[in-house]
Amino acid sequence: MSEGEKSKELGLDGLSKSRWRLVHAPTANHIGWSEWDELNLALNAGSPILDSKFLRPICNYYGFPDLRVAVLESGGQPLSAMLLHQRRRGDWQVFTAGQSCVASMLISPKLSQHSMEAVIEQLLRQLPWAWRIRFPKQDPILAQLATEPQSSHLRHAIHSVTTNIDVSADFDSYWSARHKEVRRGIRKTLSTLAEREVDVKLHTLSERSDMTKAIADHGKLETAGWKGRAGTAIDPENDQGRCYREILENFSANGARVYQLFFDQSVVASLLSVVQNGVQVILKTAYDENYSKYSPGRLIDYLSIAETFEDPEIKMLENYTNSSSVDRKWSTGTRNILNLEYYKFSSLPKMVAGFGWIKSKVRDK
C-alpha cells in the first residue's frame, strides 16, 4: 500500500504525522471531557455510554491512580482517544469498569486495518514497559476496533452476545413478530393479575429530583434478592449506588428514564436507562423475587418497550447484556461484543494461549 493510499484512508497527510499524546489522569478532573465529547459526537453521533455524563462518574468511583488519557492527533486535531491503565508491569488495558457497557475508547473509522496496527504499535512504544494492550468490550457498531482481526499480533474472544430493538416503527408490528411463547407469557401474566384485581401501573421518572429515591427503590429490590445475598446490590450509600445516581442525574435534563412497575402500591420491578441522540441504553433491571410467579422483570420490559415506541426521538433500544435465548426472542438484532488483545511481538499470542491451556489443565487436576 502506498503512502498516498494510507493517507487517503486515514484522512491525514500520512501516518508519520500522527502522534499519541499521553496525559496522566489520576482523577476524572484531569480528563479533557469537552474534547472527549466532541470526538464522541463526531465518531459515534454522541453515544450515551461514551459520553462524559456516563463515563465521568465511573472514573470518579472506579478509576485508577495510574489512569492515562491517550489521544491520537494529527496536525493538532484529535482522531482517536482512549483511557488506559496498567494491570501489571507492561500489561496495559483500556479502562472498563463493571458498570461500563463498552471500553472507554473512541477509534476513528478512517483507520484501515493496516494503519490501525501502525498506530497501536506506536502507542505500545510510548507506554512504559508495554508488551500488551487489552481492548475489552469492543462494540462493532461504535468507533472501536475491527471485529475480525487478521493480525498475528492479535488475540480475540467473544465477550458476550448483546441485543437491541429497533423502535423506529410501531409497537404492534414489533410485538406481533415476537415468538408466540413470549407473547403468550405476557398475555397470561396480565390476565392472571387482572383476575386477581391487581392494579398494574408503570411509572416513569426523569427529573433530577427523582433520582435519589429511584436509586433507593432499585437498591431495595436488589438487596432483597440474589444480588443482596452475593453482596453486589446497589445501595444509596455505596459507591455503586452513588455512581448510578450521578449518571442518572447527569442525564436528567432530557435523557434519564427510570421505569418502576407497581402492583397496587408496591414497587415490584425497576429499570434504569439513559437516552441520547436517538439511542436508549438499559443499565440495570431489578425485581421483587416474592412476585417471581408474575415475571415482573419481563412485564416491566414489555410495558417500558411499549412506552419507548411512543417516543419519536428514540430509534434504537440497546441492552448491553450477555443475552439468553429468551432475551434474543425479544430482540430485533444481535451482535458479538469482543475482547481483543494486541501484543508487541507476534510470537506472544500463541505463547500466552499455550500458557493458559497449561494452567487450565493443572486446575482440572
Structural features, described:
- There is one protein chain.
- The chain is built from twelve helices and 13 strands.
- The chain is α+β, with helices and mostly antiparallel strands.
- It folds into two domains: 182 residues, Aminopeptidase (3-Layer(aba) Sandwich), CATH 3.40.630; 146 residues, Aminopeptidase (3-Layer(aba) Sandwich), CATH 3.40.630.30.
- Strands 1, 2, 3, 4, 5, 6, 7, 8, 9, 10, 11, 12 and 13 form a 13-stranded mixed β-sheet that branches.
- α3 packs antiparallel against α9 and α7 runs antiparallel to α9.
- The protein is elongated and about 70 Å long.
- The termini are far apart.
Task: Provide a concise account of the structure shown.
By secondary structure, this protein is α+β, with helices and mostly antiparallel strands. The protein contains 12 helices and 13 strands. The chain folds into 2 domains: 3-158 and 339-364, Aminopeptidase (3-Layer(aba) Sandwich); 169-314, Gcn5-related N-acetyltransferase (GNAT) (Aminopeptidase, 3-Layer(aba) Sandwich), CATH 3.40.630.
